[in-house]
Amino acid sequence: MEQQQQNNEISLYEILKNVRDWYAYLLLQWKKIIIIGFIGALLGVGYSILKKPIYTARLTFALEDGKSSGGLGGALGLASTFGIDVGSSGGNIFVGANLNELFKSRLMVERTLLQPVLQDGKTISLAERFIQINKWRKNWEKKSNLAKLTFDPLADRKKFTRTQDSILGEIYKSLVEGSLTVGQKEKKIDIITMEVKSKDELFAKDFCLTLAKEVSEFYVNTKTKKSQENLKILTKQTDSIRGELNAAITGVAIANDNTFNLNPALNVRRTPSARRQVDVQANTAILTELIKQSELAKVTLRKETPLIQGIDKPILPLENNKIRKSTGFLGGGFLFGFLAIIFLSIKKIYF
């Protein structure tokens, strides 16, 4: 028992002695540590100057609920009970994870890349802006099939060559994998955040806003497609019946003129007028019903609100990860100083 206690005391004494020796050794090497730390500080300042900042454009928006339609839903349900089809929304196709994937889909990203933006007084596409930012054209100068390759604003995607498809695919891959993120910060909150990161501040902002606009328009067109088609058909039918009714009313007037002061005994000649009156009554009833359906269809179409209800939009200057010179100086100094201490400690132990 006493021997074990004595061994513990010796071990503790040796540890303290080694710590003092190590501390004394580092004090003797203080010049080396300071010099290495100063070199690291200078390198940190240089890194902060040379490193290009990454700008982040952030847009937040709320999702449309679409579940509660209040009194309107009751009215539309009552209309359906009587056999009146006023159309319906596109359902919940693009909600939650589906919506996130819609933002990252190649269709939406490519549509966004072909939208026009102003740069130095010239109108170019976002795809051209991306190529300029990443200096791809310098690598294309010696390639004949790429040297004259351009992406004009609002170009017809169907007429693109295989090479253009390939380049656009590379741009899409680069953006989705390293620049574009879409998701909910918290599962309980139905607010989605979209972030676009880029070395170019204006590109990050323009791409973020344009992508949100393209997705919003695509969603609204998809969601209201059935209602729009239904309203279009009803409008065409209403115009057709209105024309028939006007023709029938004119026919009644003409028939009455032809039978003016007609002998009451000659009832056969009054037949065209009676037929026209039946047409007027029938077309009036049909037109009345079509107008009802058209108005309900218009209400249905108006109730389809855009999916993206913008909350916060990217505003210049954008958030960036630029390292300050003071941060680079202190960070580089501490890092290299720490590494110098480790290197000298290893050297003392093993060499």
UniProtKB/TrEMBL annotation:
Keywords: Cell membrane, Membrane, Transmembrane, Transmembrane helix
Subcellular location field: Cell membrane
Family matches, as Pfam families: Wzz
Protein's UniProt keywords contain Coiled coil: no
Keyword Transcription carried by entry: no
Main location: membrane
All copies of domain Polysaccharide chain length determinant N-terminal, residue ranges: 9-112
Membrane-crossing segments per the record: 33-50, 328-346
Cellular-component GO terms for this entry: plasma membrane
Protein name: Lipopolysaccharide biosynthesis protein
Species whose genome carries this gene: Flavobacterium hydrophilum
